[in-house]
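A further point concerns the way the authors explain their paired sequence and structure data. Nothing conveys this as quickly as seeing an actual entry. An entry of this sort, consisting of the sequence and the corresponding backbone structure tokens, reads as follows:
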Amino acid sequence: MQFKAIISPSPNIRIKIPIIKQFSLSSNLRHPKIPLKPFNLCFPESHQIPRNLQKVGCISPSQEFLGENLQTHEPESEINPEILNLQPSKPTNVAEEFANQSTWDQIIEIVKFSGPATGLWICGPLMSLIDTAVIGQGSSIELAALGPATVLCDYVGYVFMFLSVATSNMVATSLAQKNEDQVQHQISMLLFISLASGVLLFLLTKGFGEWALTAFVGAKNMNLVSAANSYLQLRALAWPAILVGYVTQSASLGMKDSLGPLKALLIATALSGIGDIVLCVFLNYGIAGVALATAASQIVAANVMIDALNKKGYNGYSFSVPSLAELQEIVGIAAPIFVTMFSKVALYGLLIYFATSIGTHVVAAHQVLLNIFGMCSVWGEPLSQTAQSFMPELLYGANRSLKACFYKQARSLLKSLLIIGASIGLLLGTAATSVPFVVPNFFTSDTVVIGEMHNVWICFFLALSVTPCILPSEGTLLAGRDLKFISISMSGCFALGALVLLLVRSQVGLVGCWSALVGFQWARFLISLRRLLSPNGVLFSEDLDHFKLGELKVA
């Protein structure tokens, strides 16, 4: 987006310029004094939001003013000699204070922010892990059926994470630019897009779900289709709630709030676990009971996250139809992210497809390992979210008078994120790799499946240990709006992983599948790190115009 920086004519002198008193509705938009309506649909022709209060002649957020005394309404035009000093302005926002800290202090602050955010990313894989453990104790066939079913459920939902990333990026950047009057409208537009996409996915699943599963598993594994389709159809009931939840959760994270969404997902995880036990263990509903419990918990989580957003003064039930121009701006952000997400999901889908083609025991072992991998890899997601929440203030913030200082602070922040990521990667890689050896019967009692899991421990460790370093690197690229590069590089990494998969999977089975994943993960990390360290990267280049998109105008 093209945002206009507010630059002072002098780095040390604050000039008070008289302006005509203005009336602004921006505070009312964020903190409405009337009860929020349960549903509000806005069309672009009738939606008009004024810009935020004008800020002139200021060099930092602490020096922004209206040019008049709000109590006496008297204009102020003279220069106050008492404010003339040679001291540099102190940081006055969270991002600047955070970036000015030492590396160790930054690490502590990152942990404080990302600690609750970790729970957000763990809840989803934890629900899948619970599903896997419960189903694995009953039937190897249903455990294997979870593989193709999750491709058309969880993985398709992961593709739509571009809505989540776009929301967080847009909200954080708008707040960094002091464009608070745009935030509600941006949220409303993205809520409408997510709701429409969720309804479309529900209809497509109902109409073509069984056909897609049949084509995916192939003629050798037709015995998996019935169980997989039962799971898929029940999970499809929650599609609208899932995508709306993506937007509301990411809007809160863009406001640097991770506690509200965490509360929602903790409730959802508890409901999913209780539902699995009641429906599967006591009522013997099997894979259908697991799907029903998960879908119900996701619907509850979406409603709790909407309520958390409402408490911040925004309307989580407001759905605004974007105009054609606004839709083009959103697509400009979301399309490269969609390509990125699709590349990841496509590779994971290929892994399951080839594992399924090898045999039932192989895909069952792959399903267990992939769930452990997913559960552990999300520990790096809060580092990505930290970069996306704090980097925009340093790269695109309103205070741009000290660009070189901000770039140095941004690089320092990335260094802290990578240190944490490397530590987490080694710890999780070691712990997760030991699970199939220490507690193999936790997921399945089938000795053949356990043996397949033991064969890939080296590849499993190499793929998992680098993941927490990948995510903050890519999160920094997303925060810097280097979207074209990240989408092209991800597509290239997908092509490399798919090529390795085609070449080695027939000779070495499941080991070949995980070797392809190792190549995919390490290529992502090395390419993104090289881009960030490049003189033309977002952390070094003082001309960020080629990374920005056009300003998203409020209709």
Observations:
- DSSP finds 19 helices and two strands in the chain.
- The longest helix spans residues 180-217.
- Strands lie at 40-42, 318-320.
- Residues 1-40, 42-92, 549-555 have pLDDT under 50 and may be disordered.
